[in-house]
Amino acid sequence: MQITASAMAVQVNAALQAAVDSDFRKSDNKKRDNFRNPAETLSFFGIEPNHTVVELWPGGGWYAEILAPYLSVKGQYIAANFETEPAEDTRRSQYFAKAGKKFEQWVADNKANVGDVSFSTLNPPTKTKLAEDGSVDVVLTFRNLHNWAMSDNLQPVFEGAYAALKTGGVFGVVEHRANPGMAADSGYMEQAEMVKLAEKVGFTLAEASEINANPKDTKDYPKGVWTLPPRLALKDVDKEKYIAIGESDRMTLKFIKK
User: Residue 64: phi, psi to the nearest 5?
Assistant: First the structure.
């Protein structure tokens, strides 16, 4: 049975709150905390300082700024990064390679704060081994599902997460939440379909939270979810309207490997 948790029900431990409040984080990243709720979200997923945690496609490191320092003493942060040495030479592959190398350099430049970060490569469907099988406490993904769905690679990623996790491990998912019938190229995904796929792979839904919900998000925009902040894809067109809506309505799902 699905249990829904509210933001008020989540208790944040002092070490995690300190990582969220740290001056190590970029000020522009902190400005988004009201929409991304990092302390409450990571607490909802049950992440402890001694855990081994894989983050799928950390991108520019928004969550890595929190997770890597938090896990650096007793735990392990593993970045399942973009493919940095792609076999193919396309605009998309080169974009990901550049972003992946930039993240690797950020880790190297900030070793004093982030500790010994480990890396794996996530490039589905060919590279989905995130870590040694059964070795990880938590796998996390933030607003990535639509990317894998658009390339028909969502199930291999879920399978990779399942393989990496220990029995009892958590697969934590945050994603833009679709209205029924919306296509993945809108940037939004249907919550019921994501639960169905996770269960197909072997996961059990433990809880669904409304921590990252936004009822103002009507999801009917000219450029999909990217119309909203922070992208504001229409630039100055109706800019104040979209700023007033804020960032997207998001599902927050906690799956367990039993």
Answer: -60, -30
